[in-house]
Amino acid sequence: MKIVTAIDSFKGSLSSMEAGTAAKEGILLADPEAEVVVKPLADGGEGTTDALIEGMNGQRIDLTVTGPMGNPQSCYYGYLADSNTAIIEMASAAGITLVSREERNPMLATTYGVGEMILHAIGKGCRNFIIGIGGSLTNDCGIGMLKALGFEFLDENGMDAGEGGQALAKVASIRIENKNPLLEGCHFQIACDVTNPLCGENGATYIYGPQKGVTDEMKEGLDKDMAHFAAVVSSSLKCDYINYPGAGAAGGLGFAFLSFLDAQLSPGIDLILDAVGLEEELKDADIVITGEGRLDHQTAMGKAPVGVAKLAHKYHAKVIAIAGSVTKEARACNAAGIDAFFPVVRGITTLEEAMDPDTAKENIRQTIEQVIRLI
Length: 375
Prior knowledge:
The protein is of the alpha/beta class. It has 14 helices and 13 strands.
């Protein structure tokens, strides 16, 4: 019997690989002859870099870049030497959690540090990039990132237009001659789970701007500035992504990747499942074990375990999910492809006790052992 585990992290308790390894131990207690494959799982958001570093023998690369408000910011990315791939979370360089609510200023916040991360990875030999763009503080259409990569944005006097949201209205022309020449050989895959266009009432500024410091008074003007910038890009580069689904992600960073770097935008779970090669392992799998810290109605709406289930059913494998906690609404997961799910907490306990890593591992081991014995 072949069993594949692909379990998302139990946030605050176990990493994806720790949870998967505990499940493997439980499987082998019940069936020592089972063939067990453990794969990392993430959805392209927070924790993706750590999951793929651990699960794909990657290396953590630490560096200091320009933070969203211009201050030095420590961050890191994952380096997969075998495939010359960099795993980057833009939020580590320009994320909303890096700046207090009082300090957030969408007119100044920049993605420059994201570009510095990409440049650093190019210098290490990376030519393939998987970049998660959730959790941004910025609303700059990616101007900062692109400037770090050598693109130039000039005002009507031929001077640098600046950075942040305030630069958008000033851009009159774009120079691409000085972009890093190695970008031509780079392939960018962007984990993007939103479908918002760049502008309008469903665009970057109106939908996501308020949490980044965009006031009601700013919205109309900043949205028009984005439209102006998009028009200059369209005229200069002969492409038009203003209404492309996902262009409005991360304050227009999706638009920048599409327009300047010929990137592909994909749902995060699809991108990660492809990156870890899960489908190949599922072709002859009998059972798939997935899960996350909490199973609820949101899980059924396309989170990582359901992405695993859909792929598993393509090859007629049974899908079992585990979780630290399960809500009543989690029954929707059955309709979404999870054949059965089980909470792993085994008795009355405090949250702190349940989330203790050693306790969580033992709970997973014992739960999975009993499930496999039944099968």
